[in-house]
Amino acid sequence: MSARPPRRPAGLRAPDKLVFLLSLVPYLLEQRVVDVADAAAHFGVGEQEIRDAVMLIATSGLPGATGTYQPNDLFDIDWDAFEDDDVIVIVHHVAIDDAPKLSAREAAALIAGLRYLSAAPENADSASLAALTEKLRAGASGEPSRIAVAEEAVDETLAEVRRAVASGRRLEFDYLNARGEHRRRRVDPLRIASLGADWYLQAYDQHREDVRNFRIDRMSGLSITDEPIADHTGRVIPETLFQASPDDLEIVVDVAPESLPLLADYLADSTSTEVGGRLRVTLRLAHVHGLKRLVTGLPGLVTVVAPKEAREVVAAWAEAGLAAYPDDLSDRDPIEAEV
């Protein structure tokens, strides 16, 4: 009985093959001259798949005004180099130059975002981000504006917290809670999460003996200790930042429908009532002070309905903010609690 030949690995699925082909042409044009073996290693596919793809590219193009393909309407390669030396050289290409390009402003905005990501410790000296930045700069319709991304104090604290999480060492810091109370905390850092523009550390609080969330911009006097964190393998870390508690306050608000997803973590339930073109929902928060930043982060989109204490706190917060502006602005009518 003869041995069965080894099974050939399955080829790319149709969606993956399309992405592969769309990526292969720009790669070949950028490299200009590339061995089949090098292209296969770059894309993580077999050499025969590269050859088959090149054959397909050579029969592709863009028909002319008559709807038929003329010699200059198709891709062409150096067939001698391909067949004799297994080298790919595209000597004629079509349609690629007609692809839409990013404007200089669009490219500048994306480059600024990449620079912000590069500031994170885990992305330091990232070759991928640097290469993507250069591709954006080269592919823009004009020279992107030079945008400086300022590093804030919270970025430095965030970087320090990330180092603590990565090294698995305990953290000590002074924490200012929403009530304005200072307390020195000693925690086992577990995970970093974000909600909107705010960053949070999920950590095991040694004093509370439970997992707590700490907003990173409220931390100061950070110190990474030499003590390793305890084993929290069996501990359940909540997927969402905020969990319901029997002590939570229920606050009724009217919110613009398009902004409701931004409050998903705070909703007491899924019920809502339409009132004057807005949705009336109930939020659950640990304390009324946490409502101030939530409402001011969605100006004009959230109206506090009840309880009275919550309306007064938000109004006082807004009035205090207005008072910090020049006198000609503070002469305006007082801010109503529901605004």
In short:
It comes from Agromyces luteolus. The protein is of the alpha+beta class and 339 residues long.
Textual characterization of the structure:
InterPro entries: CBASS_pafABC_assoc_protein, PafC-like, PafC_HTH, WCX_dom, WYL_dom. This is WYL domain-containing protein. The structure is a single chain. The protein is 34% helix and 23% strand. The N and C termini lie far apart (85 Å). 14% of the residues are buried. Helix 5 (104-118) packs antiparallel against helix 6 (127-139) and helix 8 packs across helix 9. It is an alpha+beta fold and 339 residues long. The chain is built from 10 helices and 13 strands. The chain is elongated. The strands form 4 sheets. The chain has a 5-stranded antiparallel beta sheet with strand order 8-7-6-5-9. A 4-stranded antiparallel beta sheet has the order 11-12-10-13. The protein has a two-stranded antiparallel sheet with strand order 1-3. Strand 11 and strand 12 form a beta hairpin. The model is unreliable at 1-10 and 334-339 (pLDDT under 50). It folds into 4 domains: 14-98, Orthogonal Bundle (Arc Repressor Mutant, subunit A); 104-139, no CATH class; 153-228, SH3 type barrels, CATH 2.30.30; 249-330, Alpha-Beta Plaits (2-Layer Sandwich).
Topology:
Layout (H helix, E strand, L loop, with lengths): L13 H18 L2 E2 H8 L3 H11 L18 E2 L1 H7 L1 E2 L1 E3 L11 H15 L8 H13 L13 H15 L1 E8 L5 E14 L2 E8 L4 E6 L3 E10 L20 E7 L17 E3 L2 E8 L4 H7 L5 E5 L1 H16 L3 H4 L9
Antiparallel strand pairs: 1-3, 2-4, 5-6, 5-9, 6-7, 7-8, 10-12, 10-13, 11-12
Helix pairs in contact: 2-3, 5-6, 8-9
